[in-house]
């Protein structure tokens, strides 16, 4: 791997994507526990909420991919979706305990739409910034980093939920999503792959 690729991954690229993905893994793993905490006996609906997150996320991934392909606004789109993920997480955090299960369906689905929809955006942006490095190398390193954060977040949030409740546990994830959004805002949008493709077409 070239010094540029290593520098890009080390200077925040892996962090902002991995924080989002890690938060998603933790939330998905602990979703059943959080729902049952506030809605005892609703195991079936807890599974349905998880399904809602998955379906909404699939839709978000498709829409964000189409938008990115047409607009080529990598940093702007990534940042907006990241902020909306944070907003969705905050709303989910403070509405989970309202006692209305239908609200949880809506907030969880909205959060899943942006949180899962962000993943293909993040990987594509990473490939742009690390070009001409192999897409497999950059995606592989980012995926490993995301898995590590997912393990850390899952264990940490689980302990917080057990000791203090679901709200502090979700606020824990909100803090790291805020950090990830801030890191994204400071990344320079050097679209190296787009520049290389443009030069090739011109030549």
TrEMBL record:
Keywords, alphabetical: Cell membrane, Membrane, Transmembrane, Transmembrane helix, Transport
Protein name as catalogued: FLVCR choline and putative heme transporter 2
Compartmental location: Cell membrane
A Pfam entry, by short name: MFS_1
Record lineage: Eukaryota, Metazoa, Chordata, Craniata, Vertebrata
Natural source organism: Homo sapiens (Human)
Annotated transmembrane regions: 46-67, 79-95, 101-119, 140-158, 170-189
Topology class, membrane: Multi-pass membrane protein
The keyword Transmembrane is annotated on this UniProt entry: yes
Keyword GTP-binding on entry: no
InterPro entries xrefs: FLVCR1-2_SLC49-like, MFS, MFS_trans_sf
Record-level Gene Ontology MF annotations: transmembrane transporter activity
GO cellular component: plasma membrane
